Amino acid sequence: MNHSLKEMVALVTGGTKGIGKAIADRLSNAGIQVIITARTAPAEVTEGQYFIQSDLAQPESAEIIAAEILEKYGRIDIIVNNAGANLSPGGGFSTLSDEHWNNDWQTNFMSVVRINKALLPVMIDQKSGVIVNISTGAAKLPVWEMTMSYSSAKAALNAYSKALANEVATHGVRVNVVSPGLVETPLMLEFIQNMAQSSSVTQEEAYQSVMEKLNVPLGRMAEPDEVAGIVAYLVSPEAKYITGVNYSVDGGALPTI
């Protein structure tokens, strides 16, 4: 991260907590003007950040966000599509309704497609821009009893990201993916709590069950800032020859290199 990033404008969706907040704060500290979105307004917005309240699962949200950013700042240099969640119950295919599938795909895939579609024309006109789509290790290593519909939506995001990277590279726009594994965020802790309640076990037992299923060699969950670090690198000039790549930040959980 260096002085060349200052005065750039970045959008970080889902930027009020967890991984998104860590990314937004890292970019703000580099001098970038950061716009964050979330369904719920934070108690306090960090200095140097601008908040837009929005539910990205709603199709009209992307155009509204894009219009506000362009009216206020007139440009967009970085998009970090971080907003996403594993919204469906565990238990496998028989527990998942059409509504569960639709919610996961709207939140984790179509929301990204719409944001990029709304803002990419500006990047193409500028002949510069960087997009980082936040996926998950579960897209390559799905856990059927916990992440079936979520994993499928994120797997689609991976394929879409590679195709988009190839399409817009000649316009000076780079697209990459970061795939975290287990990260200690409020959403993850809530997921473990719900898993404990539904399985009638303690939270510690549920935590250990998740760790054992994913077999993390480093033996712990990541901190959000450990994901933010690779995102900060990818949007910087140091990564100007990197596009169409998916980076795993999973403590070694993916069993292939």
From TrEMBL:
Pfam families: adh_short_C2. InterPro entries: NAD(P)-bd_dom_sf (IPR036291), SDR_fam (IPR002347). The keyword Repeat does not apply. One of its GO terms (molecular function) is oxidoreductase activity, acting on the CH-OH group of donors, NAD or NADP as acceptor. Keywords: Oxidoreductase. Belongs to the short-chain dehydrogenases/reductases (SDR) family. This is SDR family oxidoreductase. The lineage of its organism: Bacteria, Pseudomonadati, Bacteroidota, Flavobacteriia, Flavobacteriales.
